[in-house]
Design a protein that fits this description.
single chain, 243 residues, alpha/beta, five-stranded parallel beta sheet, three-stranded antiparallel beta sheet, 7 helices, 11 strands, elongated
């Protein structure tokens, strides 16, 4: 489970962020003072940091000293504030939000930084949910072969690469663009997800409203799913079940 350190001088805001991140299965630690924030950064006590730059007493100079360029961070500013010099980094490591911010926008920023789209691997095993056979664009679920379209397979590969973690629509769109050579419309993701759910006969792909989708490692197969049929002989050793 990924971890995030939320440093905010308003305890109620930090707690709201912690609860919202927890719903997406992201462990959040909370600090409300400059000393605790700098200590957490120096110790690298989390995978990602949400830092309130409006926190009284928090010096940007000290942040620059302890925050390496490659460490992912979401910075919070007041509207109209300029971004402090020395905290910018590659887009893959930095996001900026204006206070007051919505929990959904924070979750989306965190998910984008934590979860780059994994490449599609031949014969990818998704950790017990099923097995993807890239050469045939098939997935084995509960002993049955399910054929997927090229787009469905690319989408499932992205989700299966990080089961239990939320992937934003932007990340899924990037995965489809990489596979197809062109970017589909954002709403097309919803259509492809519906097609996958219908083919797989399960409720494993869970919607995180306003953010994206997650392959739920704890969801059981749907009782009214498509009938099972024998697996391909070469796939008998594949793991059973797609939670």
């Amino acid at each position: 489970m990924p971890s995030v350190l939320v440093a905010d001088h308003e305890p109620e805001v930090a707690e709201m962020a912690r609860r919202y991140l927890a719903r997406a299965r992201i462990r959040a630690l909370v600090t409300c003072t400059p000393a605790q924030t700098l200590r957490g950064l120096a110790d690298r006590s989390a995978d990602l940091f949400v830092i309130d730059l409006t926190m009284p007493g928090l010096e940007v100079r000290r942040l620059r000293q302890v925050l390496a360029p490659g460490v992912p961070a979401v910075f919070l500013l007041h509207g109209g504030d300029t971004r402090p010099y020395g905290l910018n980094a590659a887009p893959a490591a930095r996001r900026w939000l204006t206070r007051p911010f919505s929990p959904r926008s924070l979750l989306a920023a965190v998910c984008e930084l934590l979860q780059p789209v994994p490449p599609t691997q031949p014969g990818h095993d998704d950790g017990g949910h099923g097995t993807l056979a890239a050469s045939r664009r098939e997935i084995v679920v509960n002993g049955r072969d399910v054929s997927l379209s090229r787009t469905e397979f690319a989408l499932m590969s992205a989700l299966a690469g990080q089961p239990g973690r939320v992937l934003s629509r932007q990340r899924l769109l990037a995965a489809l663009e990489s596979e197809r050579g062109k970017r589909p419309s954002p709403r097309a993701i919803d259509v492809y997800i519906a097609q996958l759910r219908a083919k797989l006969g399960m409720e494993a792909i869970r919607t995180i409203h306003g953010v994206g989708y997650v392959l739920d490692v704890d969801a059981p197969p749907a009782a009214n799913g498509p009938p099972a049929r024998p697996a391909h002989p070469g796939q008998r050793r594949q793991r059973e079940g797609m939670a």
